[in-house]
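2024-03-11 09:14:02 INFO queue: dequeued item Ceramidase, len=216
2024-03-11 09:14:02 INFO validating residues
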Amino acid sequence: MNWTAYVDGYCERTAPGLWGEPLNDLANLAFLVAAGMVWWYANGQRTGRVLAVLIGLVFVASSVFHLVATRWAAVADSAAILFFVLFYAALFPRVFFQAKAKWAWLGAPAFLALTVASSALGGGLYLPALIGLAGFAVALGVKRDSYWLDFAMAAAVFALSLALRSIDDVVCGDFPAGTHFLWHVLNSVVLYLVAKAMIGKMREAPSPDDGEGASV
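2024-03-11 09:14:37 INFO prediction written
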C-alpha cells in the first residue's frame, strides 16, 4: 500500500496542495476551541484534562489530513477519533454506572467490535458512534440520570453532522465548498458535550481513583 498516495475525498478539494481545502482547514479550529473549553471546565481534574488532550489530538490529526491529503494522514485522522471514542467507551460504565474497573474497560473492545461489524455490513465507521450516543441517552434515561439529556443532545447533533457529511458530494455542483466543514464544527460540539457530561458526573461522585472522580 502506498501510504503517501493522494486522497481526494471531499468536494472542496480539487487538486493536491496544502491549501486545497481552506474551509475544511479553518473549520478544524472548532476542535481546538472545544479542547480549550474542556480543559478549562476540567479545572485540574485529571480525566477531564485527558479528554481535552484527546480532542486536541483530533484537531491536530484532522488538520494535517486536510492539509496534506494523503493516505497515512487519513489513517491518523481516523485513529485520533477512535482513541477518544474507545477511551470514552471504557470510561462511561465506570463513571455513570459504577462498574468495577476490571469490567468497565470492556466497553472499548465492545465498541470496536460494533464498529468492525457495522463496517462489514455497510453501515460505515461512524454509525456505531451514533448508536452509542443514543444508547447512552436511553440507558441514563431508564436510570433517571439527568445527564441523559446531554447524550440525547449529542446524538441529535451527531445525526445532523453525519447527514451533512453524507451529502458533501451531492451538493458539490451547487455549493463547491461542500458540507464537510460542518461535520468538523458539529463534531466539535459533540465532543464538548460528552466530555463536559463526563467531567460533571465525576464531580458528583468523587472517587479515590481520580481524586475528583472515578477512573478506569
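2024-03-11 09:14:37 INFO annotate: The radius of gyration is 18 Å.
2024-03-11 09:14:38 INFO item closed
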